[in-house]
Amino acid sequence: MTARTGGLEGIVVGDTAISTVGKEGVGLTYRGYDIHDLADHSSFEEVAYLLVYGALPTTAQLHAYRDKLIKFRRLPNELKAALESIPGSAHPMEVLRTGVSLLGTLESESQQYTADKISDRLIACTPSMLLYWYQFHRNNTRLDTWNSEEQSVAGYFLHLLTGKKPSDEQKRAIDTALIIYAEHEFNASTFAARVTASTESDFYSSIVSAIGTLRGPLHGGANEEAMRLIGSFKTPEQAEKGVKEMLANKVKIMGFGHRVYKISDPRSDIIKAWGEKLAEHARDGYLFAVAEIIEKVVRAEKKLFPNLDFYSATVFHFCGVPTPLFTPIFVMSRLSGWSAHILEQRAHNRLIRPEATYSGPAPRPYVPIQERGS
Ligand code: COA
């Protein structure tokens, strides 16, 4: 099997009632709702509830859900101590992977900590985990703002990051990113979570598998790489020349292309509009023009379109988020989709265990170590 025919490309590996990706050419729906409607009219908390609990919440259900998430923000002391002992030089995705795993030993899945409760708990406390570690190592501060006045996950994240009240525009930009990052069918990290769930392992183990899988630059890590590229150019002219050279040297441009979408990524225009809006007030707003030139060159030279990660990078950057924290935002959001898939896998479980075409040596006799030479 060659690399090109591998990767399970085009293979249907299961059923899902959670989302459709690219089925109508370019479409993306969560439980039947178009992503554009959700991005325009809903909030991340509504979408997380929709994914995990299966239906849009009523007003009362949404209030109760928001209150629960606020209550679940606080971190156990043992976890705070562990976050302090993780080196400041660690990658934030390593911090989340470790933090979720440790929480799984303190609040292991049980009758007290049921799967849906763990899902709510993780959505609520990953911003706390990430930024407790971040502020401790960057600013020598022990965060204790669990009762932040910010009601939303987006606002809470920005508050913990900056220590200030975020603007409504920034909050809505991050909230929109959280909505459109929340779910994407059988992508690599969700598939990893389902494989782990299919062995009847615990909820935290599935999430840890997913976080490790999301980190790679071919998946969630692409937004960080996209920002490093955009930020490396001072002018659109420089970007045009530089990206043409990269493509001539067969270098992949992170944030472009997609395994399933063939025409465009329906999430890209939504997040691009936010990038353009935020650029108007940003100190380095010229980076949006740089990003647009990169898009133009990659479209012209490779016929490739930007995926969600490319312009998300500009949005996160203009909201003051340091680049290494980009993929963790993806985690904060995708936890809702992963949770929905773990619950769905459990509800109709069969062990996921595919087969491989063998390409190694033919059967041969064992050679004792004394006869193998030095
Ligand atoms: N930049 C430059 N060329 C790209 C490219 C990119 N971002 N994405 C794909 N290509 C090219 C490949 O080099 C290959 O060209 P070739 O036929 O000349 O060898 C061809 O397009 C097919 O790419 P391939 O990597 O085999 O497609 P895939 O379906 O396996 O990969 C991605 C899908 C998403 C992994 C791929 O497009 C990619 O690596 N993109 C960058 C990472 C990224 O943004 N990931 C986030 C995805 S949401």
How does this structure look, described?
- With 374 residues, the chain is an all-alpha fold.
- It folds into 2 domains: 17-214 and 333-347, Citrate Synthase, domain 1, CATH 1.10.580.10; 222-318, Cytochrome p450-Terp, domain 2 (Orthogonal Bundle), CATH 1.10.230.
- The protein is 56% helix and 2% strand.
- The protein contains 16 helices and 3 strands.
- A 3-stranded antiparallel sheet has the order 1-2-3.
- α6 (115-139) packs parallel to α7 (153-162) and α8 (168-181) runs antiparallel to α15 (308-318).
- The radius of gyration is 22 Å and the shape is globular.
Kindly list the characteristics that best describe this protein.
374 residues; mainly alpha; Citrate Synthase, domain 1; Cytochrome p450-Terp, domain 2; three-stranded antiparallel beta sheet; binds coenzyme A
* Count of domain modules: 2
Poorly predicted sequence stretches spanning 5 or more consecutive residues = none
User: Which ligands, by name, code or SMILES, are bound?
Assistant: coenzyme A
Give the second-level CATH assignment, the architecture of the largest domain.
Orthogonal Bundle
- At the first level of CATH, the class of the largest domain is Mainly Alpha
CATH topology of the largest domain, which one? Answer: Citrate Synthase, domain 1
Shape: globular
